[in-house]
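Researcher: Go.
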Amino acid sequence: MIQVVSCRSYTMPMKNISGSKIGWVFIKYISVFTGLHFFILSASLLQAGGFSEIRVGDRVPSFVANDDTGNLWSLAEASGEKNIVLYFYPAAMTEGCTIQACAYRDQSIDLQNLDSIVVGVSGDSVNNLRLFKQVNQLNFTLLSDIDGTIARLFGVSLREGGSIERQIDGSPYLLERGLTIARWTFVIGKDQRILYKNTDVAVTEDTARVIAEISKSEGLGLN
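Model: Structure:
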């Protein structure tokens, strides 16, 4: 006898058969008890991207998102001529994320010399990103992934959002986000394939590791 214990549904972005576009696929999971075994399709698996794991060497999924100015940024349009450092971080204006972002800002010349651009992704709103970029004088693009679509495409883990209060130019601001994205870093090569992936990022080491990996791929030695 099979007893249905729970049934929940999720929608998530998935590639179509041609791999050229992203659609929405309706996925349902059911926990059942057979008397001998207890089967659960873990919610954390769904949160981690819905059965899709991007590996080094894989071609990247395309996406479009709002940047820190509110304009649309397209991965397809940015890909090909430059390496793209696509890094996911939990929340704008928090300590660890500020350290990480400022390291990318300060190493921008080294990255430019390696034909590389930086793009940060978080669950923050466009307004949060605008403030984050302005306060820290960041010199690269930030993308708003408020519903986790981009994170799921890359298999990045998600958890509940939150809010923080900050004083900016003497005025109080409440920065809210609907979800929190794990701190993962990817490098997309000029061939539009994953060159590097790190799911255990240390904010003080991230930029140096990225530069080392790109240098190695370009056949360059580090001094």
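Model: Residues 1-41 form one domain.
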